[in-house]
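Dear Dr. L.,

I hope this message finds you well. Following up on our conversation about the binding site, I have prepared a predicted three-dimensional model of the protein together with magnesium ion. For your records, I am including the exact sequence and ligand specification that went into the calculation, followed by the structure tokens. Please feel free to forward this to your student if that is useful.
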Amino acid sequence: MPARWIRWLARARALRPRSAAAVAESLQVDLPPAAMNKPVLAADTVAIGLGGNLGDARQTLSWAVKAIAQLPQTQLQAVSSLYGSKPIDSSGPDYLNAVALVTTQLAPLDLLHALQAIELAAGRERPYRNAPRTLDLDIELWGQLQSDAAELTLPHPRMLERAFVLLPLAEVAPQCVSADQLQAVRGQGIELSQGSGWWL
Ligand code: ADP
Ligand code: MG
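The resulting structure of the complex is given below.
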């Protein structure tokens, strides 16, 4: 193999783990905007949206973060600030929302079922669609996985419509949310309720 190929390969290897933007900069090439905005989440990394508007929602969400952290084969990586928002497609008191980032070796449906068990333990009831709830745990993103299955649709089919998902998600995984996506949900009346560490 010619020496210059070997040098090129060594350089390419050294660059591999870096972000697309960093690679583009060091190679002095321009990436198209779409490539810069491309959501990049490691294959084992999951963004979980937490929400609730019944009972002491802050306490329930805090308990839920701790329960998620204790799931088998799952490591809590980051928790966003806590946000307050008016019900959208729902009713009842204002919502509290946050996003947690975890890495997991669980299979997707196993994590979904574990999250549903946590919802149930928090007194979640489903009297009708979009009813007020003590706790809602949605899987927003799972690496680059895409799924059309009704039981687990990925990315979550309504995440881009919801400021209460995009804002906290942008805190813990900024590479997954573009400025245009944030702009599109402006004016949804979401406000910061408590900064990081609210769940401890
Ligand atoms: P909501 O849509 O208000 O969150 P539920 O929490 O009751 O309502 O969830 C309804 C159904 O959505 C669940 O039975 C679940 O199987 C399905 N579902 C599909 N995709 C997802 C996802 N990405 N995260 C969580 N639940 C999902
Ligand atoms: Mg849900």
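In brief: The two ends are 56 Å apart (CA to CA).

With kind regards,
A. P.
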